[in-house]
Amino acid sequence: MKVLKKLLACSAAAVVSTAAVATELEVTHWWTSGGEAAAVAEFAKAFNDGGDTWVDGAIAGSGGVARPIIISRIIGGDPMGATQLNHGRQAEELVEAGLMLDLTDVAEKEGWRDLVNPVRLLDSCTLDGKVYCVPVNIHSPQWIWLSHAAYEKAGVPVPSNWDEFVASAPKLREAGIVPLAMGQQPWQTQLAFDTLMVAVGGQDLYVKILNGKDADAAGSAEAAKVFEAYANARALSDGSNVNDWNQATNMVITAKAGGQIMGDWAQGEFQVAKQVAGKDYTCLPGLGVNEVIATGGDAFYFPKSDDPEITAAQKRMASQMISKTVQVAFNLKKGSLPIRGDVDLSAANDCMKKGLKILASGAILPDGVNAFSADTQGQIQDLMVEFWNNKSITPEDAQKRYVAIISDAD
Amino acid sequence: MSEAKRPVQLFRNMSAKIAAIPMILTALVIFVGCTIWTIVHSFTKSKLLPNTRWVGFDQYERLFSQNRWLISIENIAIYGICTLIFSLVIGFLLAAMLDQKIRFEDTFRTIFLYPFALSFIVTGLVWQWVLNPEFGIQSIVRGLGWESFTFDPLYNAELVIYGVLIAGLWQGTGLIMCLMLAGLRGIDEDIWKAARVDGIPMWKTYLFIVIPMMRPVFITTLVIIAAGIVKVYDLVVAQTNGGPGIASEVPAKYVYDYMFQNQNLGQGFAASTVMLVTVLIILIPWAYLEFGGKKQNG
């Protein structure tokens, strides 16, 4: 009982950010590039200032590399204090197995439901009415980044939507420029497909397939158009032999390519290259056709611990991550949008503002990561990668196989 | 001599038997136990965590309807057959050459064996660069004046598995050579002398006398090569990561991806069970011929 009282006192003290007990928490994440590391350092700073100790457990490589390591540590009985995961269904089974800390009391006390915008982010942290993770940022993949220098060289105006982009491609080819830069990593081919689905197929189709797992929609004429556009993009990217997304972004920065379909994290690369939005490069959300963005992003989960001190420190960290000051500091460094609508982001650049405006207007889509299980996601990715690299597969064949996956999706 | 006269047969060498108990237990629990557990769970709908929701052969049906799995099998077949043939042939030829009492034998042996000291990850990366058209072999040859020279196996879906094969051979052949060399050295000098007296040409001596005598060495080598083929994973991950597209996928990578990335244990278990069964199909008849025959003779 005494311990419990101490514990209560402890968490109460945390609210006024003068922790009575200093606790070490190991935090795993896969933010290792320059901008990402700077952003995560903001979290560490806030946590250390509160009197606790942040033990950084960065895992090099992308989420695909880090996720299995993180999950096997949690399942294997060696949980870290806190960990980054993309929210949504990746951690669903871990939560169901009772391995994650329930944050509902913190969330209710601070009124997360009122301050998280869009509230869907919190929903994907919620299972059976209980909150299990802290959303920290919003990343949207539905963007195309266009190089002004490349279009100047080809002598055509910078396109303002996907159709103009396709129409201008032959001119770029004549000038020796690859129209569409594309890295070879599987998630990038997948991202391009999802983005084209929103832009060409429209929001309804996207929602029907991703949320409703509607196989009829996946086989419809609208979806056929998406596969047609995707095959088109495949042809436009001919000659783009780079691997990583930032190498592809670099092709756009150096005007070797006309554009790249990539998420808003590409912005960090343009900033590092000292390019200015609207002057050196243009960004078109939703490929300029349907101005909507999906609200994917990152979240932090806290594996359950028997030690009440660790539990208290975990809750302290959770409430810091969502606090106003930390949100602003973190997201400006990361180039992502904050998860609360009530913060001041006047330092944001043009493209970030475009994103904020769309966010405020509510034109928001669910993210693929939230909608499908990792299994289905993996199958779709395999299909997309195969299609993208094997030009003998027709869009019709690919669509047929896509319909088969969607009808078995879970 | 009947067994009845020595009733304590079981307790002979007691200390040795006690010492072997931990290993026997490990073998039974870890290898046999976990294998059975895996096979049983391949018939369930296990996702991220294992469960026992039975689905019969669904996982296997799905497995063999996956293009990626079929390509994986095709790749491992090409890689396996080529590795087996080339590493044996090249390894033996190198060993036979070194066996001619040449000068600097130690130096050559070290050079040939050196790649084996590197991990598959390093090998994969090195050959990724060597075969990269931008700054590997292709650009060097083009720099020498052959402007239209094209050699980019890693970017060609039909050739990529051969690019992986080259790296695998480069890494593994040195070891095979050393094993062969040891075998060659084990052949009695008198045999060579006798063959020479009879006027048998050297290549015939190798082919019809020495190689049949090296049978045990060949079997050891075969096992080592075969084990390397089945588990090839890190080389592909480092060199191509399965690409371009899914053209260089291998079964071990399929298993890993499904178990840990796609969070579908059942599918991964089914794939690994198929791998196990395939190995057994090859192994059992061979073991039967190899060891079953001996018992009858001896």
Description:
By secondary structure, chain A is of the alpha/beta class. Chain A has helices at residues 2-15, 34-49, 63-75, 92-96, 104-110, 112-115, 120-123, 148-154, 162-174, 186-201, 203-212, 215-218, 221-236, 245-253, 266-272, 308-321, 324-334, 350-361, 368-371, 374-389, 395-407, and strands at residues 24-29, 53-58, 82-86, 126-127, 130-131, 133-135, 143-147, 178-181, 257-261, 281-285, 293-294, 298-301, 364-365. Chain A folds into 2 domains: 2-139 and 296-340, D-Maltodextrin-Binding Protein, domain 2 (3-Layer(aba) Sandwich), CATH 3.40.190.10; 143-294 and 365-407, Periplasmic binding protein-like II (D-Maltodextrin-Binding Protein, domain 2), CATH 3.40.190.10. The termini of chain A are far apart. Chain B has one domain: MetI-like fold (Orthogonal Bundle). Chain B has 13 helices and no strands. Chain B is flat and about 70 Å long. Chains A and B meet through helix 3 and helix 20 of A and helix 12 of B.
Quickly list its features.
heterodimer; A: about 400 residues; alpha/beta; D-Maltodextrin-Binding Protein, domain 2; 2 domains; 5-stranded mixed β-sheet; 4-stranded mixed β-sheet; B: about 300 residues; mainly alpha; MetI-like fold; about 70% helix
What is the ordering of alpha helices and beta strands of chain B?
A: HHHHHHHHHHHHH
Number of structural domains of chain B: 1
**Nearest-angstrom radius of gyration of chain B?**
24 Å
- The rough form of chain B would be described as flat
Number of discrete helical segments of chain A = 21
Q: What is the radius of gyration of chain A computed over CA atoms, rounded to a whole number of angstroms? A: 22 Å
CATH class of chain B: Mainly Alpha
From the N-terminal CA to the C-terminal CA of chain A, the straight-line distance is 45 Å
CATH architecture of chain B: Orthogonal Bundle
The largest chain-to-chain contact, stated as pair and per-chain residue counts, equals: A-B, 25 and 23 residues
Structural domains of chain A: how many: 2
**Largest sheet, spatial ordering of strands of chain A:** 2-1-3-12-6
**Count of helices of chain B?**
13
Major sheet of chain A: 5 strands, mixed
CATH topology of the largest domain in chain A: D-Maltodextrin-Binding Protein, domain 2
The CATH H-level superfamily of the largest domain in chain A is Periplasmic binding protein-like II
Number of strands of chain A: 13
Low-confidence sequence ranges of chain B: none
CATH class assignment of the largest domain in chain A: Alpha Beta
Strand content of chain A: 5-15%
What number is the mean pLDDT of chain B?
Answer: 88
